[in-house]
Amino acid sequence: MDLSSVKMVVTDMDGTLLNSRHEVSPRFFELFDVLRQKGILFAAASGRQYNSIIDKLYPIKDELIVIAENGGFAMQNSHEIVSTPLDFGIRGEILDLLEPLENTHPVLCAKDNAYLKNSSVDFLEKLKEYYTEYQMLEDLKEFEGEVMKIAVYHGESSERYIYPAVRHLEGDLKVKVSGANWVDLSHKNAHKGFALEKIQKQYGISSKETMVFGDYNNDLEMLALADYSFAMANAHPNVLKAARYRTHSNDDFGVERILEQLIEDLG
């Protein structure tokens, strides 16, 4: 595999670039600096809040593109590239569907803040890992501001207990099992692939020049836009099937190993 044609690297965060302790390795930052000097464009694409991604990648925050909220929102150097909010009218319907589900915590995700119910206080510590800015509300239906997506957490399994209740909304919305405990509901065009395609067009970068790393179902659309698509060893079966290549797990420097090869091939 010759990676010398790559001009852009895109990586998911949780389960991919971040290890199981939600950390970015010092080695990654070293590799990033070398790739930047070689003119490689870098994007971090995550279901996380924009502020949370910046927090994880703070040393390089001014040198990368941030695709947040599963592609519903993307920024580069404080310049908004993509914004695809969830239609206001559907929000109440979604919250009604979630109301009877036990052990379930919906989060309204705005560009710079997240909103959750006061009754979800026991869920707060888990939320803080993914949302650095948040606010508690008595009733989420009363929030009238713009929302990029509704993220829903289940303490045991999102695929088993949340997805069946909302999967009928697929087609009208983008419904993604984005992690073992998360399902995300957003505008049908609010996905990582939609955002990445806009960025590729903006920079004149083709799929043959794009490298993408991912591990879960919310990465499928962007993996399809890269000739060099890599599934982590710890990836969901759907991702392992969809990606052209595989790398080591997020706890075994899977991204870094391929970036080292990329640097070698670029010469």
TrEMBL record:
Source organism per UniProt: Poritiphilus flavus
UniProt lineage: Bacteria, Pseudomonadati, Bacteroidota, Flavobacteriia, Flavobacteriales
Domain of life of the organism encoding this protein: Bacteria
GO CC annotations, alphabetized: cytosol
Protein name, per record: Cof-type HAD-IIB family hydrolase
Entry-linked InterPro entries: Cof, HAD-like_sf, HAD-SF_hydro_IIB, HAD_sf
Keywords: Hydrolase
GO terms assigned for molecular function: magnesium ion binding; phosphatase activity
SUPFAM superfamilies: HAD-like (SSF56784)
Record has Phosphoprotein as a keyword: no
PANTHER family: 5-AMINO-6-(5-PHOSPHO-D-RIBITYLAMINO)URACIL PHOSPHATASE YBJI-RELATED (PTHR10000:SF53), PHOSPHOSERINE PHOSPHATASE (PTHR10000)
